[in-house]
Amino acid sequence: MIIILRWFLRKLLVKRLRVVQTGRGTIYCMANFFLEQLRDCDGVLFDFNGTLSDDEPVLEAAYETALQNVGLDGLRSSEYESLVGLSDPDIARRLLAARSSDEFDALIGHLSEAYSAAVAERPTITRESARFVAALIDDGKRVAVVTGTFRALMQSGLAQAGLAAVGERSVAIEDVSHGKPDPEGFLLGSANIGVPTDRIIGFEDSRAGVEALTRAGIRAVGIGPHLVEADGLIARFPTMDDAARAYLGR
């Protein structure tokens, strides 16, 4: 009976529902609720890698290239996947430690070159997501990025999508002492855009990021497959484009 009821609800409301997974089971969250929350806020903070920028495969390939360019073994099976959610300095240090190397500066230099070249060839922020950001700004929202990656990598991705101005008030890993799940980055992002944390919506794709948002007092929207069972989300979307379409089609 429960299965039949769920099927009926999904058929009846498919265009209005977004699925949110919690530890207590599946909750069907009306898209209208997401829109109301977003309309009501004054600021929006986006995580970058894997959230605003659909670039995890690109970043993984860039690490592979960078490791080889400094004369080290490439990525092992599932090695990069196990590090997703960490800041790029932490990822780099763990990769180097596993290879008994201290070539941090060289690795980061090659990483930046490989990533920027890949993004120039194929932008990782989709047109739909770029339109979403532009629409938020047009609607009077103050927007910035809070990322665990380096500013050069973030700026190259934003520039390719025509969003270079968003980077001016954004927070990169060089700007903080502690990466996610510490809330420092989001608190600094709140200060940079001049909006109190309780008036901000944040978009994240990792548990560490959601924890950082929650600790900062910012409402969280989940993006992607890593947050299927995460608690504390006001909504969850498979991709940023899905969230963009929900807002742009309002």
Question: What does this molecule look like?
Answer:
It is a single chain. With 250 residues, the protein is an alpha/beta fold. The protein has 2 domains: 30-54 and 125-248, HAD superfamily/HAD-like (Rossmann fold, 3-Layer(aba) Sandwich); 55-121, DNA polymerase, domain 1. Helices cover 46% and strands 14% of the residues. It has helices spanning 2-13, 31-40, 56-69, 88-97, 104-121, 127-138, 151-160, 184-193, 207-216, 240-248; strands at 17-22, 25-30, 43-46, 142-145, 200-204, 219-223, 233-237. Strands 4-3-5-6-7 form a 5-stranded parallel sheet, sandwiched between helices. Strands 1-2 form a two-stranded antiparallel sheet. Helix 9 links the parallel strand 5 and strand 6. Helix 3 (56-69) packs across helix 5 (104-121) and helix 6 (127-138) crosses helix 10. It is globular, with a radius of gyration of 19 Å. Mean pLDDT is 88; it is low at 5-30. It comes from Corynebacterium genitalium ATCC 33030. This is HAD hydrolase, family IA, variant 3. It holds the Pfam family Hydrolase. Keywords: Hydrolase. GO terms for molecular function: sugar-phosphatase activity.
Sequence-ordered SSE layout with sheet pairings:
Elements: H1 2-13, E1 17-22, E2 25-30, H2 31-40, E3 43-46, H3 56-69, H4 88-97, H5 104-121, H6 127-138, E4 142-145, H7 151-160, H8 184-193, E5 200-204, H9 207-216, E6 219-223, E7 233-237, H10 240-248
Parallel strand pairs: 3-4, 3-5, 5-6, 6-7
Antiparallel strand pairs: 1-2
